[in-house]
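Whether sequence alone determines local backbone shape is best considered at the level of individual chains. For completeness, the protein is quoted in full, as a sequence line and a line of structure tokens:
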Amino acid sequence: MKKLLLIIPFLLGFQVTMAQSNILNAKTPQEIGKKTPQQMKEDNSKPLPYPYTDDKDVLWSIQVWERIDLDERFNLPLFYPTDSLQSTQDRRALFDVLLSGIKSGKIKEVYADSYFTDKLDTAALNERLSYVDTLPQGIEQFNYEGKVDDQYIRRLKITPDRIEEYHIRGVWYFDAKYGELRYRIIGIAPVAYDLGAEAQGIESDLVELFWVFYPDARELLHQFYAYNPRNAARPFNFDHLLNGRFFTTTIYKTSNEYGDRPIKEYIHDDALRQLLESNKIKEMIRDYEEDQWNY
């Protein structure tokens, strides 16, 4: 954990891309946002490959499912900008990046669950991301005229401003070969309120829209940048942001002998105790590395 925290300042100063490309050298407004050949050459990089980890070198590990609350100020770079007109390659909402990657085929597979067992096809994914309903006036018109005007059809769709949280599944493990605690993201999912319940005025819980296998999305996430609140001239790409854990989370589930049951299933209707349990798990993970060197 301490090593990961040391990585963050390095990531903050490493990027060479301007917050809005070519803004200082542009001769006309149309040139703002267009990268120079030199910038394009420098940006032609790939994600840093994960090192191979042999199973026999994993001395200890635990899987954790975490909630990234986008209402928290520290997590806002993952949320904004919500307006597509303000989106550029140098600054985009994470949901916009994931969705565009799915539509373009750069993210090849999308799943319904964090275990990646139920694959979503295009029709199933669109059903989760949109909602079409006929208003009462439209039903009445159909009964009398046999048709429904567009003005009586309600269409809702998931946009970046509707995303409330992200859920991530990852693994903390102690690498005996290097003698250190490491973390690897396995999957990520955007979370929003159910559109159908919203259209009917029914209070609903948050639902996971889809899960993406993180290694499949790394190359895409490496190409797009989030705003750096500490230095607008040095944005960081989403792959660095997520791998460097530049966000705050709450653990809501871990791998356990009870079928990976979530915290809320054994601590009922007590948000404070659920939060304390999450912090207890975090402390346990932090202490594990230090305990290896105590005799």
